[in-house]
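lol forgot to send this yesterday, sorry. struct tokens for the thing we talked abt
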């Protein structure tokens, strides 16, 4: 995983043992971008409940990153101040793209820095990167 900002971690699918470790490290929210039918390897709901971590599911079926996904990721990260949040998908591909608009529009990052950070966190899809860039451009045009 990667930590683009203090208190915000990103990565691929965690294992059951990681959940308790994340809770111990002060993470209070887990945002899962995987599609509902993707295998997780363990009962994430039960593991979150046991460790007291808020579990938020926002299913994204690749390569679909719609505006509502960007909107909801931004809303959650703004609510939490981006602190104590672990965002994951299967490999980090969806996560990287989903974070770009929040980093740029809500944290004031330069777009290229946000894209570079997203790639370091697992973003590989040119299509998802293009969707994130397009969303940022459209939102900026409205400001």
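and heres what i got for the seq, position by position
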């Amino acid at each position: 995983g990667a930590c683009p900002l203090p208190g915000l971690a990103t990565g691929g699918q965690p294992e059951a043992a990681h959940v308790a470790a994340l809770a111990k490290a002060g993470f209070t929210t887990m945002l899962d971008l995987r599609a509902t039918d993707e295998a997780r390897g363990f009962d994430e709901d039960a593991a979150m409940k046991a460790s007291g971590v808020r579990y938020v599911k926002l299913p994204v079926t690749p390569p679909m990153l719609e505006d509502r996904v960007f909107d909801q990721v931004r809303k959650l990260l703004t609510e939490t101040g981006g602190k104590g949040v672990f965002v994951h998908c299967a490999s980090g591909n969806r996560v990287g793209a989903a974070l770009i608009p929040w980093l740029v529009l809500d944290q004031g990052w330069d777009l290229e820095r946000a894209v570079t950070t997203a790639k370091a966190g697992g973003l590989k899809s040119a299509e998802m990167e293009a969707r994130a860039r397009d969303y940022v451009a459209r939102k900026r045009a409205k400001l």
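Residues 126-142 form the longest helix (17 residues). anyway ping me if u want another try
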